[in-house]
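Example record used in the benchmark description.
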Amino acid sequence: MSPRKVRGDAWIAAAAEALNRHGSWTGRIHIHKLLFVAKALDLAKPPFEFVLYDYGPYSFELDDQAIESEMMGEITRSYPRAGYGPRYAPTLRGREASAALRQRDRDAIGRVASQFGSRNSQELELIATCLWMERRERVTDDDALVARVMAAKPKYKEEGPAIRKALNDAREIAAALKSSEPVRG
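Model output (structure tokens):
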């Protein structure tokens, strides 16, 4: 039986709600990374295609859907701290839309959000990029992976230790999510 197709707005609202619940800033980058990680680790199947872009794995469809979700009143944007980007939260309408997701998809989103916690967007960018390199580009050697991330992300050219930390964090997150995965039946 194939999973039923659920609109992207439900995924975005569920991601924003879970991230808020776990202490995240919940910017659009956070939402992108959460849904990418859920998909890359095969925990859920959000209906977005991702490419490796300026801030790591990114979905143009997801970004378009987030704009539409805001216009439709399913998520709200606020600026709680000067000098920071927007923070997103689901509205009642968004929470109703997210109810269309299967419980196990909402649970998977919540588990990823719990692993993200209050990590900032740069940490999540590196973690997701490391997962991209391992999962999508099949780079398994640590040194090669760090070099590949540095080549793909010139702004981190001198940050090998930060990339190695992100690689370790990515593997810890993946292991924690794998061990907390519910039995499928």
